[in-house]
Amino acid sequence: MYMAKVASKTNPGRQKGSKATKTYNGRPVQPSLYIHRHTKGKNISYMGAEYENGDPVESDDSSGMPVRWDSI
């Protein structure tokens, strides 16, 4: 007798997503890739953060650079 296949082992619907979220200044943030392209060929890329509405999370000082994800 053949048995029906109930579910695959890698069914994404059965996997539990991470419920842990990071916050910055009391607002939830999500990771985003930041790429800064220089004219002299030195590119800087790292994981930054953005708010839920898509605005980048910038540092509190006057530089205006995005905050690194690992520093949140």
Automatic annotation (TrEMBL):
Organism per entry: Ehrlichia sennetsu (strain ATCC VR-367 / Miyayama) (Neorickettsia sennetsu)
The protein's name:
Uncharacterized protein
Q: Where is the composition biased (Acidic residues)?
A: 52-61
Region Disordered: what ranges? 1-32, 50-72
Which stretches are tagged as biased composition: Polar residues? Answer: 8-24
